[in-house]
Amino acid sequence: MNSRITFGYLCDFRNPPPWHRPWADLYAEMLDFIVHAEALGFEGIWLPEHHMSDDGYLPSPMTMLAAIAARTKRVKIGTAVALAPLYHPVRFAEDCAVIDILSNGRLEMAIGVGYRKRETDAFSTPFRTRGSRTDEFIQIVRRLWAGETVTHESEHFSIRSASIMPLPLTGHIPLYIGGFSQRALQRAAEYGDGYHGKIEGWDSYVEKLRALGKDPASARIREHHLNFFVAHDPEKAWEELGPYLLYGSMAYSKWLNEETMNYDVDNLDLIIQPMTLEEFKASGRVEILTPSQAIAYVEDMLARAPVEHFMMFVPPGVPLARFREYAELFASEVMPAFQN
Questions:
Q1: Model confidence pLDDT, tens digit, residues 115-173
Q2: Regarding beta strands 221-224 and 309-313, do their DSSP bridges make them parallel or antiparallel, or are they unpaired?
Q3: Taking a C-beta distance cutoff of 8 angstroms, is the pair 295, 337 a contact?
Q4: 85, 161, 169, 304: which is deepest, by most CB within 10 A?
């Protein structure tokens, strides 16, 4: 278990219609923000993945990770999460190895099975078998990273004498497993280097490790909070950020409601109904805290689980020049409390 928590940002590169700007400008501004975040002392930049989204939700995280690797020097980079059923394991292993080298060993990946049938349909991947496909995918990828020559025949893959070159710098890239279902937690315990998700899954994850005969002390968790921000004046910050946060949450809500019959989570509270801005504010789903409140929040989280990394969210559509001030405040008044 990690004794020190680090902090980072999840960047989805969305370009919402209400605040649309030229794509090249958005990508350049986000890369500049990432470089600035690294300079402030943040230690992780993470990219999600979705497809066929009207706002251009990042569909190609591997390409963007290569760009980030070239622009940064120290910060850890990776996916959170890549949709494993949409990848061939040989191509995934190769792409990761190249990015790991470009970043000088800073790549750390998180994968999940996804929940949108529309996405698996577009990639000619059966939705109902995405779990078993991902289990095999993980094992193949790990063997390729280790330098093995892999032959694998199954319902999902027909691979003959595959190997990759170059290899990752250390022969291993950390691979976290994301998701909210009990099966996702089982997959994290069985195949992952850690769990990427919510702290509510910690106890179950540890129990599943123990049931597999693994040392619970090896358990690793990364927490993400899509609606967590720090400001000296939370009410003023809400007025500024609220519309962007509502947009982001309602976009996820729309997807989840479309996929209710397919979505294998145990907590259907994740599926929320459309709300007005005031209803969203009253829902309690957004945490805008003062620096001292944020420190207390993180301390309480660490008392519940040894979270090694806490990732926050860059809201879709927010003016990045303005959002820098939120990152700067967090870096100057919250992070020092957790630096050993």
A1: 999 999 999 999 999 999 999 999 999 999 999 999 999 999 999 999 999 999 999 99
A2: parallel
A3: yes
A4: 85
Q: Could you give the CA distance from residue 34 to residue 74 in angstroms, rounded to a whole number? A: 12
pLDDT for residue 288 is more than 90: yes
Q: Which domains does the chain have, with CATH numbers?
A: 6-338 (3.20.20.30)
* Residues 14, 18, 21, 24, Cα dihedral to 10°: 20
Q: What are phi and psi of 97, to 5 degrees?
A: -60, -45
Task: Return the closest-CA partner of residue 116 out of 13, 261, 225.
Answer: 261
Write the CA distances from 169 to 105, 121, 218, 295, integer angstroms: 6, 35, 23, 36
pLDDT at res. 274: 81
Q: Is the pLDDT confidence value at 264 over 80?
A: no
CA angle 67, 108, 61 (to 5 degrees): 40
State the Cα–Cα distance between residues 312 and 10, nearest whole angstrom. 6
What are the pLDDT digits (tens) for 54-88?
999 999 999 999 999 999 999 999 999 999 999 99
- In angstroms, the CA 123 to CA 67 distance is 25
